[in-house]
Amino acid sequence: MARVFKTVTFLVLVFAAVVVFAEDYDVGDDMEWMRPSDPQFYVTWATGKTFRVGDELEFDFAAGRHDVAVVTKDAFENCEKEKPISLMTTPPVKIMLNTTGPQYFICTIGDHCRFGQKLSINVVGTGATPGAGGGAAPGAGGGATPAPGSTPGATTPTTPSGTTTPTGTTTTPAGNGASSLGGATFLVAFVSAVVALF
């Protein structure tokens, strides 16, 4: 019985250690998710931040005036909004970062993307140190033009493989599935030592 208690205690503490390292980001901070006056606003916002697996992005916006589409790099660069990986229209949109690598988000309303309402980030494993590739994804600059004849995308969330969109407000973008608990290694070792003392 004592061994079961130790195991359960250990697992709870490991889960707590991982949660401690996760951060919640309000995209755009006080400006929130809207068409910016500076096309580089979201590039600047992401610069200097380290996005890790387990962190959460929250896009807050006026319903019906903006949306959040998860898109490919090509769609991001060209503001192509016809076939997003996922589209969420009900604010706030909360996206759990569950994979490493670049991830791309745009607004599909009107010409908002072309004028800078787009965000690219690079997600690193939980054990990565600041400055190890987090922040804005490579090539995240603005200036892309939309595809000719583009129209706003569909208003219902799509659910590709690996993406969950309950009620259109939360999603976990599909990706390579890479994850790491490296950032919690020391804490896990410490907790293991404490549990062993029981």
Automatic annotation (TrEMBL):
Residues in the signal sequence: 1-22
Residue ranges annotated for the Phytocyanin domain, each copy included: 23-125
Lineage: superkingdom: Eukaryota
Annotated stretches, region: Disordered: 133-176
SUPFAM superfamilies linked to this entry: Cupredoxins (SSF49503)
Keywords: Copper, Disulfide bond, Glycoprotein, Metal-binding, Signal
Claim: Transit peptide is one of the keywords in the record: no
InterPro entries noted in UniProt: BlueCu_1_BS, Cupredoxin, Phytocyanin-like, Phytocyanin_dom
Biased composition (Low complexity): 145-175
Listed GO MF terms: metal ion binding
Pfam families referenced in this protein's UniProt entry, alphabetically: Cu_bind_like (PF02298)
Compositional bias segments (type: Gly residues): 133-144
Name by which UniProt lists this protein: Blue copper protein
Protein species of origin: Cardamine amara subsp. amara
